[in-house]
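Box 3.1 A note on notation
Throughout this textbook, protein chains are presented in two layers. The first layer is the amino acid sequence; the second is a token string describing backbone geometry. Keep the layers aligned when reading.
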Amino acid sequence: MDKFVVRMTNVCAGPFPESHMDFEAASGEITAIIGSNGEGKTTLALRLAAACSAGKPMPGMKPLPPFNVIYQTAEDGLEDTVKPRLIEADADQDRIINIREDKKSLHLLDSRIEKAIVQCGARLLILDPLQRLPRTRLHRLPCGGKKRACGGQAAEKQNCPYRRA
């Protein structure tokens, strides 16, 4: 084989750089997953939801008992995209919750977010993608001290980390 290529079998692995993949979040904390279309933001968000629901940590995650996750999507279909990806990621389907939007679209000021967190005992809220939810011009939201979206305020009030993809 040419000298300008190397097979990974010939590379010695160093220590895992955990600081590059830190999924630790305090209650009410907001984290954004930012990137261009097709870079895997939704895949990462779904894998995180699956890991949390099944209690099977991703690299860089501390082991935790499984818990309920609200995964809200504004772009992908639940039946043809979200569910198959959650199955592939070995999610506990009973612990992944979606707020119904068949009669009324969800927005960041929607009281259903807090109601769902409370009713389902969710410990993680994922909004994917935040920009597609109606009324989400973040600079216009009454968010207080930290730049926090109002969906995040409901999550913080209920001690539920908040992720937006």
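The chain has four helices and five strands. Residues 41-54 form the longest helix (14 residues).
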